[in-house]
Amino acid sequence: MGPSGAGKTSLLNILAGRAQSNSSITIESDIRMNEFKVDPTSIEVRKKIAFVAQDDSLTFTATPTEAIKFSAKLRLPRITTDEEIDDLAKKMLDELGLNDCAHTMIGGELIKGISGGERKRTSVGVELVTKPSLVFLNEPTSGLDSYSAMQVVKVLKKIADAGCSVLFTIHQPSSEVFNSFDRLILMNKGMVMYHGSVDAVPDFFADHKHPMPKNYNPADWIMEVAQQYSQEQLLAEGFFAKDERKLPPAVVLSEEELLDSLGVTWHDDASDDEWKHVGFVKQVAMLFWRDVVHNSRNKKGVGARFFFTTFLSLLVGNIFFQVGGVESFYDPSKFNSHFGAMVMILMMSMFGTAMPTLLSFPEERPVFLREFSTNHYSVLAYFMSRLAMEEI
Fold first, then answer.
1. Where are the extended beta strands (E) located within 53-130?
2. Which of 1, 130, 351, 380 is the most buried if burial means most Cβ atoms within 10 Å?
3. How far apart are CA 175 and CA 189, in angstroms?
């Protein structure tokens, strides 16, 4: 938690393996889980981390049921049966409170769908199908009213009580949401201002010369203190305490020890084909079928493409009407008209197919990046399905 620019999202992205060193910035970290050294940029570690971005990246023509099943079929081992996936989806919808909108389109800018809170819970459900060890969320209550925000937090609380560690960023929650937290990391300008139990927040601020007024939202008060006073004054008053913990050396295991990067024992048959994800052909088939369903439901988009193509065809046909008649075929003066008609037809064939595809990429980019980063499918499978769809 912290004000804008405090470094919440940057810290979360580093812990989740979404931020890496590049030419303009160098990231140094010592990340551990139960004293085991963890590299969150490794795909094996990221498989065990569910990451829900601030913006919901979901196919707007899909339903919550279809979105959860799609994620489960592509990410769970290939030995998982359709009946098991159906049972998992039903349980997930029930736990997330999505039964009433289970078969309603998620919706987007042009198509009305489920509410913002339901969309956020669907995003959580899509990531939870793999039963991850950690759940990271970037401002899951952003843009929601107080009731919807509390519903999302209750779902996350239930996930945490089930034994899964939940870490998320939040800007300025209501008192009810704030009091439901177990622990709090308060950040201010890239530094940790407070780290500990939520129940100890009033006493901590009172001991540092900033007692909380009665009947005041603790989240509002600590945010007011963090923004109203300078960093130098807060540092002088005892905030931003140094981390004096003496950590033992991190445990680094080799592949022969049959332990993964989170310190969890592998299955004995984890290397068998049956424990692997679905193959390339299955990925292409599922992506292709999703595109078929998307186009069948996106009637406005398909209708606009059909109208645009028909309009241009009639326009070009009217301009070059009767140019290709038999009597003008051997007339040299008609060569320019013949050549112009052929060029226009070729250009329309090329751009008529390419332009809708190129325009759809910006719309589908967030969905692709989310699914590719969580190992849903390969880049080649995605483009093969798109090519097959455009050919049809």
1. none
2. 1
3. 23
